[in-house]
């Protein structure tokens, strides 16, 4: 029979040995960041494991790790290696947390008092029990209770469940006593990226130079030194869960020159994967920008657009606007023939043009969605200052009920377009017309682009005006 003392000590002897690994053991690191505040981290480290059961404290993981996604693999000796349990210790060491962990425990309070036999003070050490830390600290001394701390507190040790850094504690079994290469992969929040583009229009507004940049934000609570960085563009479906905090990224200023391409692109399932051509470091609480792409001399088209409203065709309205806004759009093709052709992640395109002194001036911005190769990129930059419109309904005639149609009417409109520029412009007038309709009279070229959309193209002379008139029959 074992002695009583040995029996009492047996549980502590059976506790698995804890091994700690930090960034000093790291041999490789890969980070893949998705659009929606989500990243996949693959962290390879060399760790010496004992044979049999052990506890591995994998330090300096992300503070926003999703522990249920963590997977530890043994790349050196996978046979006989298994994981029995994982615990994420996110209760980090701070003075307040340390004090809270010692509620009900003894601490030493070190204070001072004047010397009785001369000038100066002497140190006093007293034991006390921490009774409470809610809305202040309550300490019980041998002869009194204090509600404030009369000095500094000395603790005998740091509790085992309080870590200096975010730590994943893994109970595992190793088949060999030797250094082994382990890879921990996990999903985490707090890492995000977005694309920003800078477009410089040529003086004749016929071409543009485009620079693409990726803005990375690391608020995950961990650093990622010398990481292989990859970005996934696309809308990856995720099961509903507690929403993570989103972080805004500030606007990017104009770049002096277009960067050389820095990211390789490839298809990945139904998404696109971009890989940085060199390792990079993502420091804690850092925003970093890296070059994504560049293209010069991209052919661009400019359009002035007057957008109508479908309520114009539902009744008698008369004057529909003394001065209506004419939108300004630019568009280009994402094709190799246009010196483009790389799938573009969603982001913001900011457009600049140089003034007469050669200084680049901001002329507008617009957001684009994920844009595949061979698709059109269309940007609204604002409303025209020198091109204006006035629209009015010149006739409305109700023709009553006809067959299955409850309401049949004829409507006539007049759109006056003015151009104060020194060069002629072409204005597209886009009309959304609902129901069964027919254009029965028009003064300018017209196309029926869809079941409920008609478009006119009106040439407006320099420092002049042009008037569009049309009549339409509507059934509904």
Tell me about this structure:
This protein has 476 residues and is mainly beta. Among the domains are: 16-92 and 163-188; 95-154, no CATH class; 302-342 and 374-475, Immunoglobulin-like (Sandwich), CATH 2.60.40. 4% of the residues lie in helices and 57% in strands. It has two helices and 33 strands. The chain has helices spanning 4-14, 95-101, and strands spanning 17-21, 26-34, 38-49, 52-59, 71-74, 82-89, 106-114, 121-132, 138-140, 145-146, 152-154, 167-174, 178-188, 191-201, 207-218, 224-233, 263-268, 271-276, 280-282, 286-299, 301-307, 319-324, 327-333, 347-354, 360-368, 376-383, 387-402, 405-419, 425-432, 436-442, 446-450, 453-460, 464-475. Strands 2, 3, 5, 13, 16, 17, 18 and 19 form an eight-stranded mixed beta sheet that branches. The protein has a six-stranded mixed beta sheet with strand order 26-23-21-29-32-31, with no helix packed on it. The radius of gyration is 35 Å and the shape is elongated. It starts with a helix and ends with a strand. Mean pLDDT is 87; it is low at 1-14 and 242-261.
């Amino acid at each position: 029979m074992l002695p009583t003392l040995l029996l009492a000590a047996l549980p502590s002897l059976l506790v698995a040995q804890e091994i700690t690994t930090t960034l000093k053991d790291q041999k490789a690191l890969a980070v893949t960041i998705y659009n929606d505040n989500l990243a996949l981290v693959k962290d390879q480290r060399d760790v010496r494991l004992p044979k049999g059961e052990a506890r591995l404290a994998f330090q300096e993981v992300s503070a926003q790790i999703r522990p249920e996604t963590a997977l530890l693999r043994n790349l050196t000796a996978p046979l006989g290696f298994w994981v029995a349990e994982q615990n994420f210790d996110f209760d980090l060491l701070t003075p307040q947390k340390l004090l809270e962990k010692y509620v009900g425990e003894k601490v030493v309070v070190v204070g001072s008092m004047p010397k009785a036999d001369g000038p100066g003070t002497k140190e006093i050490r007293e034991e006390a029990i921490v009774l409470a830390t809610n809305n202040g600290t309550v300490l019980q001394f041998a002869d009194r209770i204090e509600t404030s701390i009369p000095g500094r507190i000395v603790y005998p040790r740091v509790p085992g469940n309080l870590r200096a850094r975010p730590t994943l504690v893994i109970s595992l079994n190793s088949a060999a006593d030797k250094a082994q290469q382990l890879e921990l992969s996990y999903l985490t929040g707090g890492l995000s990226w977005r694309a920003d583009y800078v477009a410089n229009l040529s003086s004749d507004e016929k071409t543009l130079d485009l620079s693409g940049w990726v803005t990375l934000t690391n608020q995950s609570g961990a650093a990622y030194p010398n990481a292989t960085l990859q970005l996934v563009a696309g809308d990856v479906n995720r099961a509903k869960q507690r929403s993570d905090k989103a972080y805004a990224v500030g606007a990017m200023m104009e770049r002096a020159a277009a960067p050389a391409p820095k990211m390789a692109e490839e298809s990945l399932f139904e998404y696109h994967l971009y890989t940085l051509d060199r390792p990079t470091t993502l420091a804690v609480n850092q925003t970093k920008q890296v070059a994504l792409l560049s293209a010069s001399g991209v052919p661009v088209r400019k359009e002035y657009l007057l957008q109508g409203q479908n309520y114009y065709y539902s009744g008698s309205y008369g004057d529909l606007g003394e001065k209506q806004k004419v939108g300004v759009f630019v568009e280009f093709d994402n094709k190799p023939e246009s010196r483009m052709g790389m799938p573009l992640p969603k982001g913001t395109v900011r457009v600049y043009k140089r003034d007469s002194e050669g200084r680049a001036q901001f002329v507008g911005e617009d957001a684009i969605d994920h844009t595949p190769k061979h698709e059109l990129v269309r940007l609204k930059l604002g409303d025209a200052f020198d091109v204006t419109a006035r629209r009015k309904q010149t006739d409305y005639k109700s023709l009553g009920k006809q067959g299955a149609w409850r309401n049949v009417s004829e409507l006539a409109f007049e759109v006056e377009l003015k151009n104060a520029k020194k060069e002629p412009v072409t204005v597209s007038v886009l009309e959304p017309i609902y129901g069964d309709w027919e254009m029965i009279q028009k003064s300018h070229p017209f196309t029926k682009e869809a079941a409920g959309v008609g478009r006119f193209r009106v040439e407006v002379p320099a420092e002049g005006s042009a008037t569009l008139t049309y009549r339409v029959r509507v059934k509904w």
